């Protein structure tokens, strides 16, 4: 088997596993694709390949989660619809927005999220039994649109941001928050693809094997997340934040 294909499949599997278990698969997959694919390939095409593979992995993980975990569908469905529209808009603007300016802001946000999660030992451990209020539902719609736009433009850390929002602002446990984040993340990936595919920003020879690897990783990652529960996800979430902080910090220094 070609060494490049082995690298592609390994990268896709690990990214799918990481994304399903704790989020942040794009943090691994996007830099890998930029290093692996031809240097002269347009940014939009690299992002299109990444989005197609991520969609397949997220679809698999979402199916695994929602079959076993009760998620707040009344808030998630309209929030996902807004996230879809916002992500599509972001994907259309990806060629015009200097995404490097997002890294300092994301670095600060990730640092705050880590400190807050570390200090609040019980964050995301209690299972919520009450329904969302109208105010909370409205906030869910707002966050869905905001994170959807970010995912369409840039992407890395989308699942982590969504999970933190569901835990911090809606008092869900990490397992329910991760499952809910997957539903919105799935629609934002689909929205971006609705721009990338018709405009020819996908090279199928790379996208299809990468998608298969993402799908396999998503199955394994979802199984690990549900088996480990909210405590496992809390530690995994903080570990992911450390990696993201280090990656974004390194990029800014160099």
From TrEMBL:
Output the InterPro entries linked to this UniProt entry: TM_pro_TauE-like, TSUP
- Which subcellular locations apply to this protein? Cell membrane
Q: Name one GO cellular component term.
A: plasma membrane
Pfam family membership, one? TauE
Q: Where primarily located?
A: membrane
* Topology term for the membrane: Multi-pass membrane protein
Report the transmembrane regions from the record: 75-95, 101-119, 140-167, 203-225, 232-250
Give the record's keywords alphabetically. Answer: Cell membrane, Membrane, Transmembrane, Transmembrane helix, Transport
Q: Does the keyword Secreted apply?
A: no
| Similarity comment: family membership | Belongs to the 4-toluene sulfonate uptake permease (TSUP) (TC 2.A.102) family.
Q: What is this protein called?
A: Probable membrane transporter protein
Source species: Uruburuella suis
């Amino acid at each position: 088997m070609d060494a490049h294909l082995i690298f592609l499949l390994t990268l896709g599997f690990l990214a799918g596993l990481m994304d399903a278990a704790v989020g942040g698969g794009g943090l691994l997959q996007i830099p890998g694709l930029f290093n692996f694919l031809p240097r002269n390939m347009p940014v939009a095409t690299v992002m299109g390949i990444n989005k197609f593979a991520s969609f397949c992995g997220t679809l698999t993980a979402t199916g695994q989660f929602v079959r076993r975990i009760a998620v707040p569908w009344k808030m998630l469905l309209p929030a996902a619809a807004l996230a879809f529209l916002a992500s599509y808009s972001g994907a259309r603007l990806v060629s015009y927005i200097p995404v490097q300016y997002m890294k300092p802001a994301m670095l600060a946000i990730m640092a705050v999220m880590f400190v807050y999660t570390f200090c609040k030992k019980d964050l995301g451990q209690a299972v919520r039994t009450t329904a969302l209020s109208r105010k909370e539902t409205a906030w869910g719609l707002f966050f869905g649109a905001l994170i959807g736009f970010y995912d369409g433009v840039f992407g890395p850390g989308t699942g982590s941001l969504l999970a933190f929002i569901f835990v911090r602002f809606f008092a869900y446990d990490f397992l329910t928050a991760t499952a809910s984040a997957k539903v919105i993340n799935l629609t934002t990936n689909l929205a971006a693809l609705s721009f990338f595919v018709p405009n020819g920003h996908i090279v199928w020879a790379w996208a299809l094997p990468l998608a298969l690897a993402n799908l396999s990783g998503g199955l394994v990652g979802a199984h690990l997340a549900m088996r480990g529960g909210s405590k496992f996800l809390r530690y995994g979430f903080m570990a992911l934040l450390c990696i993201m902080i280090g990656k974004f910090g390194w990029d800014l220094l160099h």
